[in-house]
Amino acid sequence: MYNPSSLHAEEFICHNEIMASIDYASKNRNNLSLIDELIEKSKEKKGLSHREASLLLSCTDTERIQKIYAVAEKIKNDIYGNRVVMFAPLYLSNYCINSCMYCPYHTKNKNMKRKKLTQEDIAKEVMALQDMGHKRIVIESGEDPINNPVEYILESIKTIYGVKHKNGSIRRVNVNIAATTVDNYKKLKEAEIGTYILFQETYHKGSYERLHPQGPKHDYAYHTEAMDRAMQGGIDDVGIGVLFGLEKHAYEFAALLMHAEHLEAVHGIGPHTISVPRVKKADNIDSSAFDNGIDDATFAKICACLRLAVPYAGMIISTRESQAVREEVLRLGASQISGASKTSVGGYASQESGAENSAQFDISDNRTLDEIVRWLLDLGFIPSFCTACYREGRTGDRFMALSKSGKIADCCHPNALMTLKEYLEDYAPEQTRHAGSALIMKELANIPSAKVRRIAADRLKKIASGQRDFRF
Ligand code: SAM
C-alpha cells in the first residue's frame, strides 16, 4: 500500500500506486477540463501530486502542452528569476565494485583505465577549475570501500576547500557518491558538504535489480532509502534524480515525485534539487540492455511538468544535454547547469589525451565555461556563482521557508550579480566582461528595494577595486 510516510522503500515508492497513476493518466488524457483545472491549480505554486502531474505529462493536446510550458516558464521566473547557478563535476576515482549495466565503471570493464586522484592531483584539478572561474563543484566517485573509502572522500573535501589559488576558492562542495550509512552521512555533514546527491537510476525494483546484478548497489531498499539516512545524519539538502532511458519515463516520473512527497512527509522538506540525466554512450556499455530512451520533446515536457509539480526544487541539467536542449529547458524550469565539464578522472588539469580514457560518458555540450557564460548573458540570464545560502546556513527548511515566501530573491539576485562581477573581473575576456557589465547595470536598477540596491552597488564597486572577502 502507498504510504509516503513509511520508511520502507516499497511503501513510499509503491509499484501499485505508480501503475494506478499511469492508468489514471491514460484514462484521463483527453479530459481537457480536468487538465485545465490542474494547469490552473499549478499556477498557485503549491505543487501537484504525482498523480496530477502524471496526467499533465500524458497530455498530448498541443494547446494544453503550450499552456503547461507557459506556466512552467512563469513559475521558473517567479521563483528563480533569470539566475542560473553554475557548477562543474569533479571526478575523484573510477574504481568501482558495482556492476551497473549502463555505467562504464562496472567491474567487468577491463578497457577502462582505473584512476584515483591523490590529494596533490585534487589540488591541481581544483586550481584548474578555479582558473576557469568555478566556485561550486560536485564530487563524483565510484563505489569501492578499499580504494575510495569515506575517509578518502572526507580528506578530498578538506583539500578542495583548502585550495586558495589567486582570487579563487571552491565555496560549495556537493557530493555524489554511493548510498552509505547514517554514520558516514554524519561525517559528510561535518565536512561541510552542500547537497548530497544520489540518483535512483530507476525506481522500478525489477529493472533496478536486473541493471545492478552485483555489488552493494544491487540492494534496492538500501539505495532507495539512502536519502532518509542522509537526513538522519543531518544532511538537509538532498538531490534526487533518475537516469532516463533505463525504464519507461512515465513510471520514473511518478516515482520521482513520490520520492519528493515522501521526503516532505517524513522530514518536512522536499528535495533541494532534482536531476534529470539521460543515458549516454559510454565505453563498454551494451546499449541494447536499455531501450527506453526519450526524445528531446518528451524530455522538455518532463522538465516543464516537474517545474509545475515541485516548484521549489532546483532542477539540474548537465552537459549530457546539447546546447539546444539546455536552452529550451532553462526556459521551462532548469535552475542549475554545469559548464566545461570533464567526466574523466584528472580531466581538468591533465593535458594528456590519456585522461579521457577514464571518462564516464560522452558529453554533448563541450563549450568552455566562458562560452557558456557568454551564451547565458546573450539569452538574458545571469550566470550565478553564488554559494551564499549554504554558507549562511540557509539550508533545508530554512532555505525552503525563504524560497516559498519569495524573499529569497532579495538575497539571490544581488548575490548573483556580485558573483558574476567577480567572474567578470577575475576570469572573463574583454567581450564577456563588456556584455556582463551591461547586464549587471540593468539588473541592479531592477532591484526593488532601495536599501538592497545601495548595498549591492557599493559591493560591486568594491569587487571592481579588488575586494573579495564577501561571503557569497
Ligand atoms: N557511484 C555513485 C553511484 O553509484 O550512485 C555516484 C557517482 S556516478 C559517477 C554518477 C551517476 O552517473 C550515476 O548515478 C549514473 O546515473 C550516471 N551515469 C552512469 N553511467 C551513465 C551513462 N552511460 N550515461 C549517463 N549517465 C550515466
Textual characterization of the structure:
This protein is of the alpha/beta class. The protein has two domains: 77-393 and 396-401, Aldolase class I (TIM Barrel, Alpha-Beta Barrel); 407-464. 49% of the residues lie in helices and 9% in strands. Helix 6 (119-132) links the parallel strand 1 and strand 2 (136-141). Helix 5 (62-80) crosses helix 13 and helix 13 packs parallel to helix 14. The longest helix is centred in the N-terminal third of the chain and has 19 residues, at 62-80. It is globular. Residues 102-103, 140, 142-143, 176-178, 198-199, 201, 217, 243, 277, 279-280, 282, 285, 320, 360-361 line the site of S-adenosylmethionine.
Could you name the CATH class of the largest domain? Alpha Beta
| Residue fraction in strands | 5-15%
**Unreliable sequence segments:** none
- The CATH topology label of the largest domain is TIM Barrel
Named once each, the bound ligands are:
S-adenosylmethionine
Q: Look at the helices and sheets and give the structural class.
A: alpha/beta
CA radius of gyration? 21 Å
> Residue-averaged pLDDT, rounded?
94
Q: Main sheet, how many strands, which sense, barrel? A: 9 strands, parallel
Shape: globular
